[in-house]
Structure formats: C-alpha cells, structure tokens
Amino acid sequence: MSFFPGLELKQYLPPKRGDAIILGKEGLSIPEEPIIPYIEGDGVGKDITPAMKHVVDAAVYKAYGGKKRLIWWEIYAGENALELFGSSLPEDSLTALKFFHIGIKGPLSTPVGEGFRSLNVAFRQVLDLYACVRPVRWLEGVPAPLKRPQDVDMVIFRENTEDLYAGIEWESGTSPCMKVRDFLRNEMGVRNIRDDAAIGIKPISPSATKRIVRMAIRYALEHNRTSVTLVHKANIMKFTEGGFRKWGYEVALQEFADVCITEEQLTTDFLGVQPKGKIVVKDRIADSMLQQILLRPAEYSVLAMANLNGDYLSDALAASVGGLGLAPGVNMNDEIAFFEATHGTAPKHAGLDKANPGSLILSAVLLLEHIGWKEAAAISVSAMERTIREGTVTYDLARQRDGAKEINCSAFAQLIVNNM
Ligand code: NAD
Questions:
Q1: Which domain holds residue 357?
Q2: Are the CB atoms for 345 and 43 separated by under 8 Å?
Q3: Overall pTM surpassing 0.70 (yes/no)
Q4: Counting Cβ atoms within 10 Å, is residue 386 exposed (0-12), middle (13-18) or buried (19+)?
Q5: What distance in angstroms lies between residue 65's CA and the mean position of ligand 1's atoms?
Q6: Is 1's pLDDT higher than 60?
Q7: Which of 98, 287, 312, 315 is catalytic?
C-alpha cells in the first residue's frame, strides 16, 4: 500500500519518502520535504539533469541547513521510458504530475512512429498546460548582442493550446484540402484561395485568451510588476488576433478593475505618473514589439500573447540577452507547473558531459520560487551569475567570450556550488 491515497500507479513504484504538495483553496501548501517528480530527458538530459539536481540540492541545504529538502522522484518519458515501460509517454508520468502538482524535465527527442507530433506538445495537450511562461533577463558576463542587455527583464506568457499551432491544416492538392477549399468558396463566399493552396485554421477563443491574460495579470500583481502588454496582430487578423486584444482588455478592466489602468488612463487621469500598486495594461502589434524588445526593453515587463507570436518573441527575446542555452521555462495551468529546459536534446553533445546545464538550473530556480523557497532560488542565481562572471564556463559560452576558460558540465555545476 502506498502512503499516497489516490495515487494510482500502474507501472511505477511510489516515492519512498517525502510528502505531496497539496493544492487547496488558499493555493499550494508546501511540506518541508516535497516530492518533485523529474524526467531526466534524452540526449544531453543525461548530463544536465544530475548537474541541476546537484546545484539545487546544495542551494536548498545552504538556505535551510537541512530543515527543508527536495525529494527527487524519477518518472519517465522519451527513450528510457520506451526501453523500460514500452511507451515514450507512460500514463504513470501524467498521473504523477497531476497528483504532485509539480515536475521538471530535461529535453526530449521526438519519437518516430508513435502517433505523437512531439512529446513536449503531448504533455501540454494531455495535461492542458495552457501557459508557457518564459522569464527572460540577462546574466552578467553572458555575451549578448544587445547594447544594454541589463535593461531586459520580461516575463512572457504564451498561450499554449490554440492558434495556428493547434495543427488544424490540410495538405495542398489532397482531397480533404479541396473539400475545405470548396466549402469556403461555395458556402462562405471566400474568393482569395488559390486552387493549389494548403489550408490551415487559426482558432482563438475568449475562454483560452482570458485564462492566459488572467494568469499574466495575477503574476504581475504577485511579483510587483508595473505593466502587462498584450501582443497581437489585430491590425490584420481582426477577429482572431483582434479578439485576443479585446478579451485581454476585458479581463484587465472587468476582473482586475481595482488594480489595472490603461495607457490612456495613465496619461489622462494620472498625468503620466503611475500610481503605486497599479498595473498599466497596454498593447502592441507583434512586429513592432520585435523592435521594442531591442530598442526600448526597459519599458516592458509582463507580456501576454497567443501561441505563434509567443513562439517567435520568446526566442528572439532570449537571443537578445545571449541565447536560448540559458533560458528557463515552465508549462503550466492552475494546478500543475511543469518546468523545463527550453533547448533541445543537442544529440551531438549527448553523454559527453559538455552541455550547459544553465537553462535547466534556471528552470529549477523558477520551481523554487513557485514553491516559495525564495532564499534557495536567490542563492542558486547569484552563484551561477558569479561563476559566469568569473569566465569559467561551458563550451557554448566560452567560444563567444575572449579569455574565458572552458569547463565541462559537471565541473560548471560544481563551481556554482563552490560559489554559494
Ligand atoms: P537543440 O536545442 O537540441 O540544439 C540547437 C543548438 O544548440 C545545437 O547546436 C546544440 O548543440 C546547442 N545546444 C542546445 N542545448 C545546449 C546546451 N544545454 N548546452 C550547449 N549547447 C546546447 O535543437 P535541435 O537540434 O533543433 O533539436 C534536437 C532534438 O531536440 C530534436 O529531437 C527536437 O525535437 C528536440 N527538442 C526538444 C525540445 C524540448 O524537449 N523542450 C525543444 C527543442 C527541440
């Protein structure tokens, strides 16, 4: 019998120690030894996951002297899951994430011939992890193309379940595609579809838009952020992207009327001086936003957008402060937060103890912040910053920086621990 009533596992053994994070009406209740399900990941996952655990365990010990600790519990997906359990995505992994409300994963390669477009997408869809959250800021010492990378401190909330990303499309010249084309022409009066066009559908709903914008505003409130910017292409796609903009403002001005003001209100009612405790909600067209993040990054804080815009903007913003190798992320909903390294499996470097564990470590820092262990989070970040500043870094950072000394993945993690 397991110690976790309600945890129904088919193939995995339950964790041997630790307690479950409980989600109640007041939010998360965090025990002193919370169970953290983790997926090692394919490719460089085998290198960076142990490095991440080493750093985080040391930071937690440093912060709480053994009074609190994370209880890592391995769950499986990807290559090792297929080998051990006959499926790249065992049901038990999904059960575990739902039950424990939290998890962290290394990168996963896309399985061939198992019916998944991508394992990462499968996790998001099956668990309805509707928000992809990416905080982006510069770490001192990281070579960055921006003139003032220190001005970047933004958190992107990208809607995860809709948009052209939903994968509703038909191949050019196929009979289903021609059927859709003929329906649009004959029944809907659409004139501008070429005979040989492939066709895709872009669903954007008020319900999905409102929940992502709601999450972004709540985050801004909890983290004392000054603005939330809705990013869209409403000028061209009036009903889908325009809908996103409209429903986003509705959430802000109806559900958060006591704390949100518009840019216009800021000028007319408050003469341009932002009142304490208020969040300015504004909107920008996506192409202009791609310029703004380079030219005026200090003016932006929390951003909310639909799926495809979020895809482009997350990577562009991460690149502006030194690249994807260090960008952390989490896919989440109101019950589950699933943290992840944002890069892929880098197969060329797999198993060589060479890859940069930074993205996964910073994702674990988000996890620590999520459970309220802010001291351990701060210790990890400042030790990592110090290590990078000193110029002893993994190959990907070393090759961009004069005078840097290249070290391997585990040595980099050890240096971070030494720097705590
Ligand atoms: P990738 O991120 O694996 O590699 C892109 C480049 O970045 C490569 O040059 C790689 O060597 C380098 N790189 C990536 N991570 C690094 C690290 N930690 N340290 C140093 N260098 C690093 O992207 P890709 O080559 O397009 O994809 C490879 C595989 O990863 C594919 O199977 C893809 O489906 C999968 N993938 C998974 C995720 C995920 O799990 N979230 C994301 C993207 C790609």
A1: 17-130+335-420
A2: yes
A3: yes
A4: middle
A5: 36
A6: no
A7: 287
